């Protein structure tokens, strides 16, 4: 393909993505791409005519495809989906959630008897809300608890339940609080028969989707939702933690940080399962923990935006 043809297709796909996926109007798209509104209109029409757009988008932006291939090689990934970065953070998040939805469709749609391990977080929730198919013979297993130490449930972290309801799968909940309050309490929880039954199902998962959490005091859900305090987050940072995967705090090398809270966590350690473990995350504050998760082999699949992909490639 000639360079000019590739550039034209890139513009076509970007314009279509911004219009159909991000919900932008043509004037905004023209301004961001540096084009006239009639040109944007023609690009969007051409995308439909050439089959790039139906219900969704079926053609990657070429630079995103290039980044995905380079990341797969650098970090030995089985899956990598890179989506366009927008000037608006919320729009970038929506793009990443759409990219995650694409991989969910690949692994779940028309695939009977799947066991799907699922984490928590806004990116996964947005991806799941796009699902328009069922997989009633499948199992959906929560990899992390939404229960606090006092028994109160965090209804913002109902991601596994939403997925199970969407695809009409059997739902398996993590039967313990996210963190125990002592070693003896942890021993009690993890020795329970039902806890081990759920952990066994998680170990049999054929695909896993998880997010990644930063320690940013203004944006981190694990702080905002009350699972750890701001003071604990600061202490974890001083101990070398750069973020968390399913409630486990890890350092820049992807190793579990030595701290009390990590010794009390009940969530499933996804490194125990060799299936595709796809992390979906974006944003500058999450880049260190995404890199750590790749380095420490927590993820062997990734969905992120092109700016984060470019950053990961130079690390």
Automatic annotation (TrEMBL):
Ranges for domain Sugar-binding: 60-313
An annotated Gene Ontology molecular function: carbohydrate binding
Keywords assigned by UniProt? DNA-binding, Transcription, Transcription regulation
InterPro entries per record: NagB/RpiA_transferase-like (IPR037171), SorC_transcr_regulators (IPR051054), Sugar-bd_dom_put (IPR007324), WH-like_DNA-bd_sf (IPR036388)
**PANTHER family this protein is in?**
TRANSCRIPTIONAL REGULATOR LSRR, TRANSCRIPTIONAL REGULATOR-RELATED
The entry assigns this protein to a family as follows: Belongs to the SorC transcriptional regulatory family.
| Name under which the protein is recorded | DNA-binding transcriptional regulator LsrR (DeoR family)
């Amino acid at each position: 393909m000639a360079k000019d043809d590739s550039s034209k297709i890139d513009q076509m796909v970007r314009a279509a993505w911004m219009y159909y996926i991000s919900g932008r109007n043509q004037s905004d798209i023209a301004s961001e791409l540096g084009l006239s509104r009639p040109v944007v209109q023609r690009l969007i029409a051409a995308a439909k005519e050439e089959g790039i757009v139906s219900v969704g988008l079926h053609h990657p932006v070429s630079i995103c495809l290039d980044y995905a291939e380079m990341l797969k090689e650098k970090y030995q990934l089985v899956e990598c989906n890179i989506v366009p970065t927008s000037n608006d953070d919320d729009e970038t998040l929506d793009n990443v959630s759409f990219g995650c939805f694409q991989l969910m469709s690949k692994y779940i749609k028309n695939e009977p008897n799947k066991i799907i391990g699922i984490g928590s977080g806004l990116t996964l929730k947005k991806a799941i809300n796009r699902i328009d198919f069922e997989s009633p013979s499948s199992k959906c297993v929560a990899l992390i608890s939404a229960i606090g130490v006092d028994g109160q449930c965090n209804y913002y972290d109902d991601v596994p339940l939403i997925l199970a309801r969407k695809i009409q799968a059997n739902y398996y909940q993590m039967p313990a609080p996210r963190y125990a309050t002592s070693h003896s309490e942890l021993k009690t929880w993890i020795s329970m028969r039902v806890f081990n039954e759920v952990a066994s199902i998680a170990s049999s998962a054929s695909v896993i989707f998880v997010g990644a959490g930063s320690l940013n005091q203004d944006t981190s859900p694990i702080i905002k939702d009350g699972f750890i305090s701001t003071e604990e987050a600061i202490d974890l940072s001083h101990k070398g933690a750069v973020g968390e995967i399913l409630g486990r705090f890890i350092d820049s090398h992807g190793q579990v940080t030595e701290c009390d809270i990590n010794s009390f966590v009940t969530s499933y350690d996804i490194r125990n399962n060799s299936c595709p473990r796809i992390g979906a995350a974006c944003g500058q504050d999450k880049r260190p923990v995404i890199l750590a998760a790749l380095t420490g082999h927590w993820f062997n699949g990734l969905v992120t935006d092109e700016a984060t992909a470019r950053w990961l490639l130079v690390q």
